[in-house]
Amino acid sequence: MKDYLKTKLSRRFVLKSGFASASVLAGMTLASENALADAKLAAEAVKKIAGNKTPTQGKIEITAPQIADNGNTVPFSVAIDSPMTAGNHVKSVHIFADGNPRPEVASFHFKPGSIAKVSTRMRMSKTQNIIAVAELNNGEIYSNKVKVKVTIGGCGG
After folding, report:
1. Residue 42 and residue 131 in contact, taking contact as beta carbons nearer than 8 Å
2. Lower CB density within 10 Å: C or N end of the chain?
3. Is this prediction's pTM over 0.85?
């Protein structure tokens, strides 16, 4: 068994494997830094949800800090004004951030009788908008957005 491992795990093999892994990781890091989202990508993501409909402003309240001293965990909540009856309820709410590597952050689905409100935290790489899009059971689409300034420890942003 030891002879088998020596031939299969030679020093050269281990070094080549380590170099190849490091190259892949470096490439992934560079690619992800170049693939930052922008307002256009966020708008395209919203369009996937809304289709040909133009989202109406209103019904959605987003609560988030105006200034976040640390972008690692930015708390926010989204509440949608709806009676949540079988005939009139929010089906889904989708959260987007127009400055994160991927604009799609999360989607939440609701049933009649539930409360159309979610609270969570998000990592934000820089100052950007949190965008919420709500789909109602009757096909209506609503949206709202708030800007959060990420100061990275209170040093500007």
Report:
1. yes
2. N
3. no
User: Dihedral (C-alpha) 146, 152, 153, 157: value to the nearest 10 degrees?
Assistant: -70
Q: Report the distance separating Cα 107 and Cα 141, nearest Å.
A: 14
Q: Which of 23, 145, 142 is nearest to 92 (CA)?
A: 142
Query: Is residue 156 assigned to a domain?
Result: no
SS3 141: strand
| 43 and 119 assigned to the same domain | yes
Does residue 64 fall inside a structural domain?
yes
Same domain, yes or no: 45 and 12 = no
Over residues 14-50, the pLDDT tens digits come to 555 555 555 445 444 444 444 555 788 899 999 999 9
Tell whether 121 and 59 lie within a shared domain. yes
Q: What's the rounded Cα separation, in Å, for the pair 39 and 45?
A: 10
Would you mind telling me the total number of residues written for the chain in this entry? 157
Indicate if 122 and 92 belong to the same structural domain.
yes
Strands 141-150 and 74-80: unpaired
Q: Which domain holds residue 10?
A: 2-34
**For residue 74, what are the β-bridge partners?**
122
d(CA 20, CA 90): 49
Strand partners, 117: 79
